Structure formats: C-alpha cells, structure tokens
Amino acid sequence: MTAGRSSIRARLSLGLGIICAFAVATLVFTLFWEYDITPGDLAGPDHSAAWREVRDHVILPILVLIVPTLIATTWVIDRALRPLARSARAIATTPAQRGLRLPHEELPVEVAPFVGSINDLLARLDSAAARQEAFAADVAHELRTPLAIMAMQLDSPDPIDRAHLRREITAMHRLVEQLLLMAQIEAEAATPQPAQRFSLAAVAEDVVAALAPQVIALGREIALEEPPARPLATVVGHREAVAAALRNLVENAVRVTPPGGLVRVAAGPGACLHVTDEGPGLSAEALARLTRRHARADHASRDGAGLGLNIVERIMAAHGGTLRSDAERRTLTLRFPYTPSSGSTG
C-alpha cells in the first residue's frame, strides 16, 4: 500500500473488523448478563463453569460464524475489485491515441461516475489537442505565402523593391500578432487564468486613442461616442483580450470604409461595444461565414490573415458573450454578460 493512502480493500477490511469486534462485545455482554457472570467469576475459585459458558457461547459461535464470514467477505471483495484490475491492465496496454476512453461497461455502478468524469476530461484534452493542431496549421498556412514572396524578392536578379518588402514584413508582423493572440486564447481555454473587472468604456477609449494615428494616416476618421449615463457597464474577464477583439473590429471597419469616411466606436448602453463603419454592411449569414478560419470578405485586404473575426468570436465565447452584426446599421457589436458598477474600473 502506498504511504499516506489507503485502499478500498483496507477500508472494507477495517470496517468488517469493527463489525466483528462489536458483535463479539455484544455477545460477551449478553452472555454475562444472561448468566449473571462477572469478570471476577472468571478468576474466582469456581472459574471453570464461567469459562465453560464463555467457550460454549462466545468462542465456538465466533469460530463457527465469523471465521467463515471473514473468508467469504474477502472473496466477495476480491471479486468486486476484479473489474477494476482488468480495466487497469487494459488501460496500461492501450497505446496513447486520440479518442481514448476508459471502458466502463463491466465496472461497478459506484465507480461509473468517476470513470465518466475521467472520460469527460479525456474528451476535453482531445479538444485542446485539436485546437493546438489547428493553431499549428494556421501558422503553417499563413506564414507560407509571405515567406515565399520575400524569398522570391531576395532571389530575384532585379533590384529589391524595398517598399514592397516592407509591406510584406508589416503584414507578417501583424499576422504573428494575430497568431500569438490566438495561442493565448487557446491557452486560456485550457488553463483559465484569474480574471479582473474592467470598464468597457475605458477599453473603447484606449483602443480609439491607440488606433487614431493609423486610421488618420489611411485617410479615414475615427470617433468615440460619449458613453451613456451611469451605471457604467463593467465585465469580468481579460482586458487585453477584449481590447484586441475591439481593435480587430476597428481595423476591419477601417478597411471597408472609403477614404474620408468615418468609423464610430461606442460603449453601451449595457455591456456592449459597437463599431460602425461606412462600408456595405455585413449580414448575419456573412458574419457566420467570416468567423471561420481563413475566410475573407470580398473587400478584405491581403494584409489580413483571415483570422480577425475568428479570433474575435473566440474571445467573446471565452467571456460568455457574442459577436453580432446589424447590416442595416453597418454595425458589429460585442455583447457581454455584466453587472452594473458604481464607478469606472481599469
């Protein structure tokens, strides 16, 4: 037996021993009470009669009843634990592979919930492994093209087009950022980290301030609408991930907005972040298609990796929220579960 731990067999045997000790004590007490025997009678001058009563009514019944019971109980315990031993041997000889589940058909009913929980855990591990495989596929798929283009530029006998090469490096930098963010999301799904409470209005303000120079350089305008009156909407989660989701929506909105157009960002009412552009609008069906990996809209630029909206949807799912589109208002909305707060937080 492993130090510090007990087995089911030991616990059952201990319980059976306690039952037997209680039965013997009850039998001795009943005998002494019935025949008016005291402990002094066992050591007195006429002790033979008292000991004879103990022998006939205590020792012999114990030998006749309890000993066979102990033997039978040991056999029953061994038989009950035998399926566990068979399952352990089967698991030990099974090669590690995707979709492995513990057999439970012949296990005792009491063990079934435990085995079911282990199988659920194995299913979650399979899901995590599948996400990691998908992430590796994303990396290979998305890095192949820009690397090939840069290699062609370097191998070409013509002078290097530095501006074109710089654009490719910028696109790859953006792609790496997107892939790293996706890796963080997947890691968070597998190993949840401590969350914090923060204000959506503060997130919108920070994202607009950070992207404003880039948007203006591209010939568009960006505006942050005034948040609604208190109580301010706050959510519990990971501020950086939510900011990244909003930043993706703003960058997509800038791409579809014609030069001189305006992108508007708003927080609220409620636990919502809205991004409105001057593009053609996005239907719910188109949004569902674009949230798949590598899907691009007709107006998407080649700088995108087809991962933006997919990442946004994953971030929202991790926060218990949703990504919604209103084609008529040309607005994408991040909607979160929340509780009102009396003041603004980080």
TrEMBL record:
Protein name: histidine kinase
Top EC class of this enzyme: transferase
Organism this protein belongs to: Novosphingobium pokkalii
GO-annotated molecular function: kinase activity
EC number(s) given by UniProt: 2.7.13.3
All copies of domain Histidine kinase, residue ranges: 138-340
InterPro entries: HATPase_C_sf (IPR036890), HATPase_dom (IPR003594), His_kinase_dom (IPR005467), HisK_dim/P_dom (IPR003661), HisK_dim/P_sf (IPR036097), Sig_transdc_His_kin-like_C (IPR004358), TCS_sensor_his_kinase (IPR050428)
Subcellular location: Membrane
